[in-house]
## 1
Amino acid sequence: MRGYWITWFVLLVFTVVMLWADTASIPRLAFVVFMIAAMLTKASMIGANFMHLRFERASLVLTVIVGLLVTAVILYILIVPDAARIHEMVVEGGQR
Amino acid sequence: MTQPAATTIDRWSGGTCPFDAGWRKVMMWWFIITDGLLFAGFLGAYGYARILALRWPDQSTVFSLPYIAAMTFVLITSSATMASAVEAAKEGKRRLALRFIVLTAIGGAVFLGMQAYEWWHLIEEGARLNTNPWGDASFSAYFFLLTGFHGSHVLTGVSILITTAIRTAKGWSTADGVEMAGLYWHFVDLVWVFIFTLFYLL
């Protein structure tokens, strides 16, 4: 049970650091990279420790990771090219 | 005579569980994957709308970030109490498990109350699904839809926790049942980690 409360404490520390970063003057790119890294670390900690994925058989862990994370990443990779040139597309189309 | 350990391939071919987990846990994970993809699609659409928006408001001027951090604190704490409940249930400590489940349900209810207050506050300031005083109209649309969809999951989770608490108090629940409620609750917490970062901070 102690392990869960250590995880809880680390998650809280991450949350506080993220809030601090939001008020600090950090270059935008570094800020975004840090936030996404912190978010994924927090998510991994919840999955591994609270949801017990680190005790599960590799077949279940891989099914979850491939099924959820990889599919989501593919979804974003498919969206990003259009999203990145959306304003250009709007000009080409002549209307929003 | 000792039997050689079955490989994953043996388990598949023999029709036994290749994941070494009961059907309930496997089905719960299937649900989490599909529901997680729903949130992933939703957050992807939000990212797209945000790039498309001409004027996206600065979140720190719209929301009280310490208040949102307090909501996060409540949810993370409720996840830790739920994990403790699962462990207590597995160790056969029914009363301790019940105490932690009730604490988790209270945490969920507090989170919902805080979210209701946040909604009320923003609606008072003029936020609607199709308009808001701060910038692009899709800002408030995504705010209400993302947090509302997550909030409906929290509400479902609280209902599940209350049911689990009653079943535990009466001695009807199994450790497996408590674990399933826990998996769902942690999933709700997990989704909030993404919403908190992508919607409120970035």
Note: The helical segments of chain A are 2-23, 28-50, 58-84, 86-93.
## 2
Amino acid sequence: MRWGMAIELKRCVGCCECVLACKAEHFLPPDIFWNRVLIGEKGKYPTVTKLIYTVRCNQCADPACVKVCPTGATQQREDGIVWVDEDKCVGCRYCMVACPYQMRSMYEDGNKEYFPGQGLTEHEKMGRILYPHQLGVVQKCIFCKERIDAGLAQELKPGVDREATPACVINCPTKAIHFGDLDDPYSEINRIIKEKKGHQFHLEYGTDPSMYYID
Amino acid sequence: MIQAKPYDFMVKYTQQKEWIDGRGNFIAFAFFLGGISGGLYLASSYFESLLGQFVALILSLLMGVSYMIHLSKPLRFWRMFMKPGTSWIARGFIFIMLFIGFTFIQLILSQWASDATTAIMTFTVLAGIFAFAQSIYTGFAVSYVSAIKIWNSAILPILFVVCGITGGLAILLAIMMGGSHAQLVALENVIRVMLIVFAIIVGVYLWNTTYSSITAKDSVSRLIRGSLAPLFWIGVFLFGILIPIAISVSTYFAGEAATGLLITAVASEIIGGLALRFAILKAGVYSPLLPAE
């Protein structure tokens, strides 16, 4: 089993709902983004193309970050999900340097508020209890592994059942993000990748990302 | 041309910041100290300078301190021994600890039990092995990062070792000043050779890197004629290569060098070594995330 995502770029409207869903799901502090939306333009008038990419940790099958981590804080599960054990991270930043996709960030300033000078919102206060993030450790997307685990425990199918699927996927209003098992040749995600010719970023690094993009 | 804001890193070549900004400066210091500490120990062992070996130990301890400052969670430093199988930082941490341990024992034996020649020789050899390991691992830690093309070169560990040994020899020269004239001449001869080797390796490294990839070429451009040019030409080329070689050549023909001139050469070589680490770390750039046109 290897979880992966396929993103249909033509469907993405750049609403950033995936970013907000991720922030809410994991109570992420203001400066921390586990996923982002890139909006840009390519070409010159009159042949300008608008580009919208939603990006996050590529959950590589052969991740550079796991290899370089000196403490074993960055780990890979059997289902391919790469995550950081915050209790083990020493903050050496080797994983941040080694990630070819620059998808990791360091949580450094615990005093930042979403509404500066107005104190923490109820949501932030609740987050510090329910989903505390340690200062000085590395942060990254974990494919909502807690949702997947809870869903599988209830015999739900990630990518099909909402409760077992990552927050960014189920909150996308245009259904641009697909989630599923890349190892299952009959899975919906594999069908989409095959039919619509999904591609990965920077194959030259040899990390075999689990994120596919469909032009 | 793709344009995007605020995430330029996805469409442009972007400099790595984690190992050079803020706390990241201390990893550059640690790599520098590790290099010259290892080089100094090897040089001191060859020239039998107990003081040189002691200074190498101090420099290695300072490297450890620099490492600790670099870490966001320094109290968890012991966890850095956990994954030597794949992580060069973990391997390096073990090398540093073993080097410090063996050097400490060797220095105690040399100072207070000088009759135990076999034991002293054994610990000197062991410490020498880990001095070399401590010096070269910094290069491997950097060159292992395939995401940054200018770093991902087999020449880099060799460059870091040669730079470390040259810096170590320079410090030993300062330590041995006023000592035996014959030893000083021998040391100066070794330094002359190492400086030329260092200059050649810097040149080969940069030349080789320019055609390894477009990203690496961008990095070299930053070093040679871009924003990092002052650091490279003044720090690495002038202080690290030109001034020491000029002094070295002049002393070769003059026969005997003035103390002030030698001190200038030593200081210049140390500045050059430090500038080299900073220049290479600062020149590290990532390829844009999005594919080109």
Note: The helical segments of chain A are 17-26, 64-68, 94-98, 122-130, 145-153, 167-171, 188-195.
